[in-house]
Specification:
Distance between the termini: 39 Å
Largest sheet: 6 strands, mixed
Structural class: alpha+beta
Radius of gyration: 23 Å
């Protein structure tokens, strides 16, 4: 138990209290506070915090920045005139408040690893991972275009309920030159879609291969020599042919999944760059993403995915910097995205993300309910919904959402990472140990 000012930090009960009243704070925030308090005689570097609090997974520095910001908010602290957490620029953080009645923290030994089968069952036949396409352009300067095309195919195929499609966050940890049988084992999929792009002026050469991970044999291959402006038709053709092969029979009701949102090709290229920057998840990349999405909207003001991407980037920057102007702009673009494309689950997920940042949790839940009704297999929708429930302090409900996200994307470490500390906070020790063991396996698979 640590007491400082009006606050009490009780890690046995995973509570931060002010004047006896519980302050809503995620367990990760409490763990950071606990570590800073126990090490308060010195400066704790960012690297040390990342290695200690997120020891089982690689996360970007923005995760720490967000946690420190939320910790300050829970303590009503100011980054410029701190009472409790001081930033030592260029070095790290230090807890500067006076702590009384504190008992020494005794390190709890980690639970023994529990043998949990991870991705051990034969992968379902209707499962696929789309890997980042290889850039074969002369200047090797089309990485954003290659990644963006793969991401668009992932988004399209995910809308087909009969398919299990590995998320971008997971698939992009692997590359096309990895052994295909090994990829199938690590990702738990029966098929892998590989591709390459060669772009010169206004001409494109796109080659794709659908490979069976059990046999290593190519199921089909195709080469497309087209104008750059034909990229949307090519994407639709690749997605439809892939779906036909995996499903055997192509249901007419799935055709809506392949309808692209019309956009100018120059705007589309800026959008792809924005998506690439957004996925890098650092303060600098969020700034760059904002610039790219703004350029997209300058070229094509009615392109809903760009408004959604801009809203996400601005919401992330608000979480880091706390600038109300960022939050206001994020809300405007999230609303615009939904107005332009209410049929896309992605726009409602973005709106739910922004509403969560705005602490409008009931409204965020409604948006995410709608997103999941549009695409029940959206792991990202369930994952975002889990964060809403965490913010509300409803950890049992949060666990259900993260569990569903993990079922939909068994190779994605993010839901399991959240489940590990939620189970621990709920006193569900066996499940916490299983989640931590699973994290170790998922981490090893990426090495």
């Amino acid at each position: 138990m640590f007491r400082f000012g009006e606050f009490e930090l009780d890690l046995d009960r995973y509570e931060l209290r002010r004047g006896g009243e519980v302050v809503k704070a995620e367990p990760r925030i409490l763990e950071v506070l606990n570590y800073l308090i126990t090490q308060r005689e010195r400066v704790v570097t960012k690297e040390e915090l990342l290695d200690t609090i997120w020891k089982d997974v690689h996360v970007s520095e923005s995760a720490l920045t967000t946690t420190i910001r939320d910790a300050r908010r829970a303590l009503n602290d100011s980054p410029t005139e701190p009472l409790w957490i001081r930033t030592i620029y260029g070095r790290g953080f230090r807890f500067v408040g006076t702590v009384s009645n504190d008992a020494p923290v005794v390190a709890t030994p980690a639970p023994a690893p529990v043998a949990v089968p991870v991705l051990a069952d034969p992968p379902p036949a209707k499962s696929i991972a789309v890997l980042p396409f290889t850039d074969l352009s002369a200047n090797h300067d089309q990485g954003h275009f290659c990644d963006g095309m793969a991401e668009e195919l992932i988004n399209t195929l995910t809308r087909i309920q009969e398919l299990r499609v590995i998320s971008r966050a997971t698939a992009f940890d692997f590359r096309s030159d990895d052994d295909v049988r090994d990829l199938g084992r690590k990702l738990g999929v029966r098929h892998v879609l590989r591709g390459s792009v060669r772009k010169a002026d206004d001409r494109l050469r796109i080659t794709v291969h659908l490979v069976d991970t059990q046999t290593g044999h190519h199921v089909w291959s195709e080469k497309y020599d087209r104008q750059v402006g034909d990229i949307f038709a090519v994407q639709e053709e690749i997605a439809e042919k892939t779906a036909r092969v995996l499903l055997g029979v192509f249901a007419e009701r799935n055709r809506a999944a392949f309808r692209s949102t019309p956009v100018r090709i120059d705007a589309y290229e800026f959008h792809l760059k924005g998506r690439t920057y957004l996925s890098e998840a650092t303060p600098e990349s969020f700034d760059a993403a904002v610039g790219m999405f703004e350029l997209t909207i300058d070229f094509d003001p009615d392109y809903a995915p760009a408004h959604a991407g801009l809203a996400d980037a601005l919401a992330e920057l608000f979480s880091i910097r706390g600038d109300e102007a960022l939050r206001k702009r994020a809300g405007e673009h999230a609303r615009r995205a939904v107005d332009l494309a209410p049929e896309l689950a992605e726009t409602h997920i973005s709106r739910g993300h922004v509403l969560t940042v705005e602490e409008r949790y009931d409204d965020a839940a409604k948006e995410l309910d709608l997103a999941i009704s549009i695409n029940p297999r959206s792991a990202e929708g369930h994952y975002r919904y889990g964060h809403v429930r965490v913010r509300e302090g409803k950890l049992d409900a949060a666990a259900e959402m993260f569990e569903q996200a993990a079922r939909l994307q068994p190779a994605d470490f993010r839901p399991t990472l959240q489940l590990a500390w939620i189970y621990r906070a709920l006193g569900r020790e066996r499940e916490a140990a299983e989640a931590e063991s699973r994290m170790q396996v998922l981490r090893a698979l990426r090495k």
